[in-house]
Amino acid sequence: MKAIFVFCIAVISVSLWGCTPVQQQKNSEDLSSLEILPHPDTLNLFVNETQALSLRGTSINSSQQTISNTGVITDAEYTVSSTDTTTRAIPSDTAAWSSSNTSAATVSQGIVIARGPGFTNITAAVGRVSAVPLLVRVASVNTAPGLSLDPPLVSLIFQDSIVVSGNVQQQAILVMTESSSHYNNTHVAYDGAGNFKVTVAGLQIGYRTIVATAQNPNQTNLATTRFKYVRYYEYLTSGADSICGDWVGTTLGRNFNFNISRNNLLQRYDINGHIDIQFEGIGLVKDITLTGIVNRDGTINASLSGTYQGFSISGSLTGYFTSSGTGEGGYAAAAKKSGWPSLSGSADWTAVKQ
């Protein structure tokens, strides 16, 4: 909105010989009001939730322009004032923020963090101008936290420890236990995205169950529980030998064969077989050699090698056993030839013992 006023006109007489205009201008800008956005009647948050706030300011821009006309005989001078009202965004980090009840919520650079049940007024000020306070209501979280464990659900291992990883909802209290090892971690650490990875050690031979529970920090009766099942054999024993034999795998709708055998000389389980892989640019390459071992944690570590029409094939096959007689994983391979770009092929696989 602009208003223009002529507040002083002094005219002595009309010049007979012309005039020479002289202009002088003065400008000023004042912040007149400040508003917190969003600004509902009440901002409702749950404990541990965050909310980003922004600021909008209204400024009054005023200017004065003095114009003088000087002639041979007469002089004339008048001043014109104008006013503009504008709104603009105010950077949140330039304001002074405050909370009237920090036990309910705190605020810093426009970021509100709900701390506990209750009410608070959030205020922002820029210089001498303060915004109308924003009323914030904080309530207890009324749901059980989300929790997921990475696959497999059932693991076959040949050592007394296993890595358990997954994701949990932020601010939850994560507890993990296993009875045979007396493992009891009441505060499993996780990163800013909720990802965690811990090693459960000291397992006893047999079927074991790892229990993970995500608790609501304010209402422990609200919780989510997930289980990971472990079948633990001693390495190179009659029970562990149950993995030995012929296996049939399936990938991209095609079958491949491999064998797991016990190698007493090298004290390990060997994997040998062949697999067909679909490559970009050259299509299906058959009978790629697969060789590797079964690690003590039950995972498969195998390499892929072969040749095809001048291409050198290399790669790896990884995976794990999900229970006695089944397995799954993935492979990644590359085909290289002089004068050609590197070609790739990858897919998941599942397998069953025959």
Give a structural overview:
The protein is mainly β and 354 residues long. The chain is 0% helix and 66% strand. It is elongated and about 110 Å long. The strands form six sheets. The chain has an eight-stranded antiparallel β-barrel. Strands 3, 7, 10, 11 and 12 form a five-stranded mixed beta sheet that branches. A five-stranded mixed beta sheet has the order 14-20-19-16-17, with no helix packed on it. It folds into three domains: 2-139, no CATH class; 147-232, Immunoglobulin-like (Sandwich); 240-353, Lipocalin. It starts with a strand and ends with a strand. The protein contains no helices and 28 strands.
How much of the polypeptide forms β-strand, as a percent range? Answer: over 45%
Query: Percentage of helical residues?
Result: under 10%
Could you say how many structural domains there are in total?
3
Largest sheet, spatial ordering of strands: 21-22-23-24-25-26-27-28
The first-to-last residue Cα distance is 84 Å
Taken from the alpha-carbon principal axes, the silhouette is: elongated
Number of helices: 0
What are the defining features of this structure?
Lipocalin; 3 domains; elongated; mainly beta; 0% helix; disordered N terminus
